[in-house]
Prior knowledge:
This protein is an alpha/beta fold.
Amino acid sequence: MEQEVPYHCVCIGQAEIDAVVATLKSGWLTMGPRTLEFEAELRKYVGAKHGISTNSATAALHLALKAIGLKAGDEVLVPTNTFIATAEVVTYFGAVPVLCDIEYDTHNIDTTKLVDRITTRTRAIIPVHFAGQPCDMDAITAIAKAHGLVVIEDAAHALPATYHGKLVGTLSDITCYSFYATKTLCAGEGGMAVTDNPVYAATMRVARMHGLNRDAWDRYSRHGAWHYDVIDQGYKYNTTDINAAIGLTQLGKLDWMQQRRAAIAAQYTREFTGVSGLVTPVVRPDRTSAWHLYVVKVPAAKRDRIIELLNEAHIGTSVHFIPVHHHTWYVNHYHYCYESYPVANQVYAQSISLPIWPDMTQDQIKYVIRTLTWALLQT
Length: 379
Ligand SMILES: *Cc1c(COP(=O)(O)O)cnc(C)c1O
């Protein structure tokens, strides 16, 4: 039976389409009532006091680092196994992303190696909840406390995920989500920073919109007035009501989408158990994963050929991530040493991300399982 399994398919239905059409018909397209509602609903969902929506998680992380007052020459600890945005935002300040190696089983930042990387210039840690599984937040919080560091979570993969029964979003100073097209809640593009700290929240809210003391919704809505003042240096990082309408609709089915992902992950793991040469993802018992990614490890020498065979069988895959210290600009600027991150190098060489999206059919899931098992025997 000929099958095709794309690496990702957005889970968009008539409800999202209707929400966008209603927004277009409302006449208010940019940040406005739907954005405010999305902020309120998402922060309520994760249990945070403030939510500041943005046009991306990258923007949210940038605003978070501005809120903590990051300065040129400061250092921020980030895992090397992440999307470049996590390190990139640090460079915006002339600060230095100090890379950390990861754990072999969870692919999360290795907290036992963090303290060695801390200097008098270290200001913050940005843990990345890889694939949707929270990092060891107890260890990270303890280290941050002991060394006076701020914790900003890159939760681009981790909506919704729990650590000791608490949702990611309530565990640290600031948490940043992504609503990029492939993420677990998709708004096309978008992001949000959530925090319980009113000073951080106010700084991020103002800097999101050019440093203005009032946003467009305030100024143009019925009770608005034309006057504004620029009270901080800022950026153009607002989202739109069109994106927020999609996000709001997705939030209503987030739990269902997460359950579908978790069920697919469980089926993969069950069926792959005992397949020689295949290492399935490990989720620690004290946490749950949002299952943004399902990453298997295969022998490094076989990895590229297996991806080719899957591709020839019309199964889309990806690799998460090419480590930060492999990228030309970062090596040239920060002189990262390739050998300093042995676990990340090994994980990168072995990893394949398999399709995991809510609308996958049983036939598609079984086809992936069958084809990968076959490809391992072929190589
Ligand atoms: C996707 C992603 C981001 C960036 O998200 P955007 O909304 O596209 O800016 C940041 N960090 C990680 C780990 C990601 O996967």
